[in-house]
Structure formats: C-alpha cells, structure tokens
Amino acid sequence: xxYSAADIQVWMVSxxxxxxxxxxxxxxxxxxxxxxxLDSAQAMTxxxxxxxxxxxxxxxxxxxxxxxxxxxxxxxxxELEEKSDVQDTGIVKQTINAMPSATPKGNASEIPILxxxxxxxxxxxxHPGGATYTPLDKPxxxxxxxxxGFLGAFxxxxxxxQTDAEIYCLVRAASLHDGKNKLQKNLEQYGxxxxxxxxxxxxxxxxxxxxxLGLGAEVFxxxxxxxxxxxxSAALLNYVYPYSxxxxxxxxxTQEILRLACQIKVKPVxxxxxxxxxxxxxxxxxxxxxxxxxxxxxxxxxxxxxxxxVAEKLVKIASDRGLPVTxxxxxxxxxxxxxxxxxxxxxxxxxxxxxxxxxxxxxxEYLLDMSPVDYVSKAVVYLSMQKESIGKAFxxxxxxxxxxxxxxxxxxxxxxxxxxxxxxxxxxxxxxxxSSPENPLYxxxxxxxxxxxxxxxxxxxxxxxxxxxxxxxxxxxxxxAGSSITxxxxxxxxxxIYTAYLIESGFLSVAL
Length: 512
Fold this sequence. Notes:
alpha/beta; Non-ribosomal Peptide Synthetase Peptidyl Carrier Protein, Chain A; two-stranded parallel ribbon; Rossmann fold; single chain; 2 domains; seven-stranded parallel sheet
C-alpha cells in the first residue's frame, strides 16, 4: 500500500488527537510533538500504530529528527517509497549515535560517531573561586530537582524526616498553584504526604532544560545566595531517544545546577548519577569499585546512559575545581520494600507484566540488581550528611542480586503459566503477540528489537551478564555501617510485597 505525505499527515492528526483525547482540529501539524505532552509510552504507541499503517516499523529516532507532523509525514512518505521494493524485516536497523546535525537518512556508516569525551566540557566560569566551604550540620534551605519523579519523592520524604529544612523543589509548571498540585499528586501516588502538601515543600517554577534553570537572573541569584545545599536527582529518562534529544535536560541542566552551586556562596551538590556510567564493554567482566575512574565511554549506546556519563564527568570536573560534591550511583530502582509501592511505568514492571501476558520470559543471563527505592533514598540522604562523604562516589547497587530465573521460578510457583524460551524465539513471539497497546511490551518493542552496535546487537544482548561489569558496593555498605540502613534481600518476601501492591493497584491480575 502506498501513502502520500498528505495521507500520512491526516492519519497522524487523527491518531494523535485520539491518543491525547482532543478534537482533530486542535492538532497543529507544525507544532512540536513534545509540546503536546506526549510521553514516552504514547510516542511508542504512535510509532507502533504507524508500523501497522506503513508495513514497516519507523525508527523512534524520527520523532526527534522530524519533531512535527508536517516534517515527519514527509519523511515517512519518502521512506515508504524507498522501501517499496525491499522486503521488510520488521526491524529498522539504526545506530543511536546520531549527532544533532545528523538525520536518520542514509546508513549508519554515514552518521558521525558521538565522542562523549569531547562533550564533557564544563563552562570555565563555573568555579567556586577559592571560596571555602564550611559544612553545615543542619541545612536550613535545600534545593531539590526531581521532586515530581519516583526517587525524588522518596528523597523528599527522607529530607522531611531527617532535617528541619525548607525544601525548594524545581518544578516545570504553568504556575505556583499547578506546581504545588504536581508535587502533591506525585507524593500521594507513592504514599507520601497524603493530606495537604507539607508547608516545608516549596515549589519553584523553572525548567532544568533552560539556562539558569528557567528562573531568570534575579531569582537564580537569590537562590544562589540563600540555598545551603543541593540535591540533583532529576533526569529525562527515555529508552529510545538519542543523546542529542536528552542532552539539554540531562547534561546542560546539570551544568546549570553546578553554576547555582558555585555562585555567591559555595553549596555542596549531592548528585544522583547511575551505574550506567560503566556500560562501556571495556569494563565487561571486571569488578568496578566506587573510587574507580570511569574514563571509557566507547560502546555506550543508550542515549540516556551517554548523558549520565557526560553529566557525571561535569560533576567530577566541578569537584576537581573545588566544589564539594557527593555522587550516588543507583541501578534500576524497585518499589518500597515496606509497602511495595512503586512506579508501574518503569522498565522492570512493564517487562514482567508483558512477559506474563505473552506467557514467556527470555532465557538470558541477567542479574536482577535492582535496589528498593526506600534503601536508595535513605542511603542518599544519610551519606550526603556525612562530612567524610564529600568528594566520594557511592554504589547503591544491590549487594546480593539474584538471577532472572529466580524471579521466573517464583512467579511459576504461584500458578502463572510462564516458560523460559531462547531469546531469539522470545523476540519472534514479541513481534507476533505484543501487537497491541494492551501488552506493555508493545511500547518497548523498539528498545527490545532495534539493533544498535556494529555487531548488530539489541540492548538486551548488550546487557547480558557476560558483557557487564560487577558493580562493587563494598565501600558504600561500609560507609552505611552503624546507620541501620541496609538493603533488603531480593527474596520471596520482597517479591510477595511487590506483587501484592501490583495486584492491589490493578496493574497485575491474580493468576487463575
């Protein structure tokens, strides 16, 4: 079937309107799709529906390089014409290492390789300027990013419990009222602040992706003068967008946080990074400790992981210039170990639910190294308050991860009809069965199926245990000794707590 750009444009207007619950005449074909508040799952739904229309799966990267309906429709019509005499494989093979100026047109060899080392350049004006820093036992004013996210909500809870400080939360919203509601709704979602928003939580309307955090020079200077300490836990997480799409928020946003920390008076930055900074195959099979250098970036393919590598490099440069920092590297973060409350939209939960619906899990050597969010948040806040933590990095990896097979066996014991099948067979089942938005894996298919490296491996291939390092958390566990903060074991008890919440919330159904 052949479609013109006009045909595709009409289709996209209709389907986007349906996704957003608005009338078709409210959709502007020249408006950036991001401005419609299209989240990652909705974007992937749109891509997957396009596959049904066109007969091939467009790369999700097209949503970045052709960000409005007019330009995207034109490009898709061109691609449809190019593919008209080529048998479709169902998987668009493309590298994610596109520079901002590159387009998805052409083959991967024509796309410049992104040099992350050259991206790790901190504005030379961001410097504490020789000012001395005197650690505060009790900060009075805390600046926090990520307060409308999962981990950020639990960090807020810990800061409320462990300090008497006012917590100024950077929020992207139209007004203070909307910002307050956004924070309140997020905290309620995770069982925190069920009544009125605590008076110590103060929304600050801004934007991590804007210069001076979108605050304007005067407000930025006021915070620089009055804030005592900064917790930077915000990051834009998207499993398919390239570095260029995530750079502004994740890298340049971190630079603005460091600028805030250095101006007028020196303020410590407690930065939430990720164990993803060690994703380069150079570290495969090696034990990586907290104080090890993370100089290798070659072979990091996820745009999100690339931004975390560069952003942490900026934090390290600021530290070398004299800024007091602590770095906290969590893995994938699981739900609260006490209540089971978690983020039902995260990768772990979507994968489990999707595999349950398919009736199969892939036979792969994965270690579940997820850490409960209450452990991560408690550890971040406790370690940030220890004077000896300044200048150090901490690994919030689970000390005793378990295999994926352990989880599947546990699920099977409760009567869920699941089997483990070879990965290539599982991929074929995914293409065949996860063909509608009713299966959570439907929106993850580009992430699970696209070939990213020169060896044409998928992301799950790249995350096999043999291709990953062992993240040591020995020094972190030692630093937590005496605090009563320990990471709960990944066992039947923890799985039961998580499953009870997922069933109670309606995310999972009870096994028949």
